[in-house]
Amino acid sequence: MQFDDDAELDTAQVQDRRGVPGGGLAIGGGAVGILGLIVALLFGVDPGLFGAADPTAAPPVGQATSSAQLASACRTGADANQRQDCRILAVVNSVQGYWQGDLAARGRSYAPATTVLFTDRVATACGTATSAVGPFYCPGDRKAYFDLGFFDDMSRQLGAQGGPFAEAYVVAHEYGHHVQNLLGTTGRVGADRQGADSASVKLELQADCYAGVWAHHATTTPQASTGRPLITRLTDRDIALALDAAESVGDDRIQQRATGRSNPETWTHGSSAQRSQWFTTGYRTGDPAKCDTFG
Length: 295
What we know:
Elements: E1 2-3, E2 14-16, H1 34-41, H2 63-73, H3 77-80, H4 84-105, E3 114-117, E4 121-124, E5 127-130, E6 136-138, E7 143-146, H5 150-156, H6 164-183, H7 199-217, E8 231-233, H8 236-248, H9 251-259, H10 272-285
Parallel strand pairs: 2-3, 3-7
Antiparallel strand pairs: 1-8, 4-5, 6-7
């Protein structure tokens, strides 16, 4: 994956809370391994694993300073080609640029979602979460949350090969949840949150498909400030790494690694094959209408 060196990055789309206290830890007592919680929540929107938090509380002290540092370091596509945090910012810019144009073409408005970078724990409108839950999107405040240390854990504990476009897939998946929230799809899950044919699985697979749709358009979506695409090159290797990441977070793969067996009755996100299949569907067609996992 290569970014346009001269492209200007929109740092207003990312808040940097790394190293800033995010509030008291309210998830059940004791340390919890990342693999255990990922089984239940990875890339999801279930607030059940979050502790109580006040969504009206003021941002943590120091947030503005940290975000200012990110804005200073991540100015152009050249920075995104060199630094991980700048790369995540650039992917957020690209993903939101695509969905803004797509929804406008369909007569819908796109409300931007902020990405929050944090370490250890963070206060959200869905409650207080720790890094153990992995990346997540909170519908209550329309923000996507990432501890960048997760990408190392994805390789060490889940067996993914990793790489820049594997990270981009994760970001695009979370923004798929934002699109679902805007379109009202998230509400279709209700209490149907577990099982191979559950609404929860269908929601997650659709977010994978939406990630693939963005990947299809990533090198052709013009940036507002330059009229040129922010991402100038994707290779077959990039797509292979995204598919590898999708497969590594399949319910069956995670359960096999954690317990030695897989139980489809407890699935919440879909199998490795399904996640790879739906990302591929989105990437090959470039058409969100082909992502009707509920149908």
